[in-house]
Structures are given as C-alpha cells and as structure tokens.
# Entry
Amino acid sequence: MTPQAVVHPIPPVYDAASRILILGSFPSVKSREARFFYGHPQNRFWKVLAGVFAAEAPQTVPEKRAFLLAHRIAVWDVIASCEIAGSSDASIKNVVPNDLSVILDAAEIRAVFTNGATAGKYYKRYIEPATGRPCGVLPSTSPANAAWSLERLTAAWRTALTIGDGS
# Structure
C-alpha cells in the first residue's frame, strides 16, 4: 500500500471539565470512515475505558462522546496530518502535530497519556517541547498489541487514569 497524505478529519472531544487528555497517534482508516476515535471494532479502547469505570461500553458516537465527557476525559491525536499507508503507524512520515492549546487552554488538564508507544514517541518529539508537559505512555489498545489481554490493559489503564485524575 502506497502512503497517502491525510489530514486528521476528527475534531477533539473535550470540555471545560476535562481533566485527563488521551492522545492516539493518528486515526485508523476505520476511525476516519466513522469520523470518530477508535472506530475499528477490534480496538479495545472503549472496552478498556468501560472496565476502568465499571460501566457499559458505549456503542454509538453520541454515547462515546457523552461517556468521555462524563468521565472528564479529553481525546484527540498527536498528529494533525501525515503521510500514511492505510492504518499503519510504522508507515507514518512527514508529521505535522496537532496544536493542543485548544484543549489545554480550555480545560484544566491534570495528566496527559498516549495510547501506545507510537503516539508517545511523536508526543515527545513534537508536542512536549512546545508544551513542557510530559506524558504517560499507556499500552496500546490496538488489536496489533496482542501481547496484552483486555484484563491486563484495563488494569494498567485503571492505575494510570485514577492517579492521573487525582482520585
């Protein structure tokens, strides 16, 4: 598959009450088609968050947005545009980072986490120098991260997110 230049099509989810910011690298093809975060049915993001908060996993985009805001979580991605082959993080080139000031100026974000090492790498390269805010790198919820079971992911995310929101 040939890399194509793609601009991030999904606006961030946040409000003034958001306290935790979770950043992916760049939306998958399925997420771009769904026009919302973690749209691939095999991605465990929504199941992990449901497990962290002992709630039902949201199904529709409005339910997912409401779930995030109810739990004071902002979600976006590190990359605003790049060249990418399909959904392959390994193929990402010519990165233009997102300007996180739209979220950081609007909400009292207490902790920033990335969903996986690729997002963490790009955050540390492009965003941390601009914001001076470190991030915690959480294990990826991608189905490509088969080494981590749903239970193990949920436990790791629960520990990070409960510390991150001051609970």
Summary: The helical segments are 29-34, 45-52, 61-70, 101-104, 117-131, 150-164. The two ends are 45 Å apart (CA to CA). The chain has one domain: 4-158.
